[in-house]
Every structure is written in C-alpha cells, then in structure tokens.
Automatic annotation (TrEMBL):
Domain of life: Bacteria
Species the sequence originates in: Paracoccus pantotrophus
Keywords, in A-Z order: DNA-binding, Transcription, Transcription regulation
Pfam families: IclR_C, MarR_2
Protein's UniProt name: IclR family transcriptional regulator
Domain HTH iclR-type: 8-71
Gene3D superfamilies reported for this sequence: 3.30.450.40, Winged helix-like DNA-binding domain superfamily/Winged helix DNA-binding domain
C-alpha cells in the first residue's frame, strides 16, 4: 500500500516547485526554494536537477545561482493560454506605449498557422483606432506579419507565403520573392513597417517579442494615420516600441531580444 498522500508525492513536489517559480521572473535560489517548499536541501537539489534535465527550469539570466521557468514549460503556458490572460497581463504597458506615442498599441501572436491580434490599447485622443482581439492580420500586408515572418524558420515563413496572398490596397505586396527581400531588412533593423498596404491611409510598425528559445510567438506594434506613425516622430516611435517589447518580454517571463 502506498503510504504517501497525493500531496506528498514526487509529482506534487515537482509541481509545487514550478508553482513557486512562476511568479518570480528573475528566479529563486535553491535556499529560497527550500524555505518556500519546506523541504530539506538534498530533496530540493534533486528536484532542481531533475527539472533542469527535463528542460522545465533553467539557470536564471537575471540572478546568480537562481532558477527560472524553462522553455518547455513556457511553451506550454503560452501555447495554451487564451488572449484574456495575455490581455490582462499586458494592459498597463500597452496603455503606457499608446500614451507615450499617441498611437494605438497592440500585441499579436502566431498560433496554429495564423497571426491574430491579442490585445490593444488606444491613446486618450479624440480619434482612436482600435484593433479587436482575434483579428486576423495578413502576413504579407501588416508590419506584425512581416515581423513574425522575418523571425521564424524559413520553412514556416514559406508555408505562410505559399497561400494566395490577398490584395488589400494598391500598395499591397503579393510577390513572395519581393517579400523575402524585405524580410532580410526587417531582420537587420529589428522591426517591420508597412504604409497603406493593409488599410488606405493607415500605417503600422511592429517588432518581435521572443520566447526563451528564440521562437517568435508575439509581436508588439503601433498603428495609426500614416503621417502620424511614419512622420517626423517615426524614430521616437521605434524606440518606444522596442523598449516596450523588452518590458513585455520580462512580464511574460521571456528574455528580451
């Protein structure tokens, strides 16, 4: 007969360790885990080694001798999470980006072969542009699409470009080779732009938010009237957007680019 209760099983200890690490993006040391879990040093060290071997935790990139959630558990978390969780987590920094730039700020992600918006924040202005959650964003005609295409594997990008590319405006690009050439520039500068390629009169810019294993799942972007997004304040917008990407990466427990 098994005398161990479910709460004292090895699996329960592994789950408890992961739950303790989850709220701490910078990680916890083994001593902190011992205190939090109420387990002896030898048991905690064994837990750490087994979780690291499985890729569920890794050495912290922010604290010495500390451990944080690893790529396997993060991929499970972000792959299964719906937009409401991400929207709640990112609401404040998105709103700060919108107010700082005067443009609508939004997060999108690649999931199941589609690029969709997740959350959006609009500035406190008379005219506001809002992207509804779950809006499909075409890979060939949006800055978000280009930012993702430029940062995923060539096979994944080719799959997204192999479908019939829709024309939205006279400026929409539908030639796959021309798009691939543009993606090289996106990779070099770290962000993508589009001007009236999706919606007449509007422009957008976007940059990737990378996961810990360097897979691009998320982007953060700005959109608004073309002259306001791409005009004299363009470089300031780029700086603000990329700083927001770094902050968002930390919130999502992902290392910044």
């Amino acid at each position: 007969m098994n005398l161990n209760s479910p709460k004292d099983s090895p699996l329960e200890r592994y789950m408890s360790a992961l739950e303790m690490l989850a709220p701490h993006p910078a990680g916890l040391t083994s001593q902190e885990l011992e205190l939090a879990l109420g387990l002896p040093k030898t048991t905690v060290n064994r837990l750490i080694h087994l979780l690291m071997d499985a890729g569920l935790i890794i050495s912290s990139s922010q604290r010495g001798r500390a451990y944080q959630l690893g790529p396997r558990i993060l991929n499970l978390l972000h792959g299964a999470a719906d937009g409401r969780w991400i929207e709640q987590l990112t609401r404040a920094p998105l709103q700060q980006l919108a107010e700082r730039t005067g443009q609508s700020a939004f997060i999108s992600r690649l999931r199941n072969g589609q690029i969709r918006s997740v959350s959006c924040a609009a500035p406190d202005t008379m005219v506001r542009l809002y992207i509804a959650p779950e809006t499909v964003l075409p890979a060939n005609a949006t800055a978000t699409g280009k930012a993702i295409l430029a940062n995923i594997s060539s096979d994944e990008a080719d799959a997204l470009l192999s479908i019939d590319l829709e024309i939205f405006t006279p400026r929409t690009k539908t030639d796959a080779d021309a798009l691939r050439a543009e993606l090289a520039q996106v990779r070099e500068q770290g962000y993508a732009v589009e001007e009236e390629e999706h919606v007449p009169g509007l422009a957008s810019m976007a940059c990737p938010i990378r996961t810990s294993d360097q897979t691009t799942l998320y982007t953060v972007g700005l959109t608004g009237a073309r002259d306001l997004v791409m005009g004299k304040n363009k470089e300031k917008h780029v700086v603000a957007m990329m700083e927001a990407a770094s902050h968002l990466a930390q919130l999502l427990r992902l290392p910044a680019p």
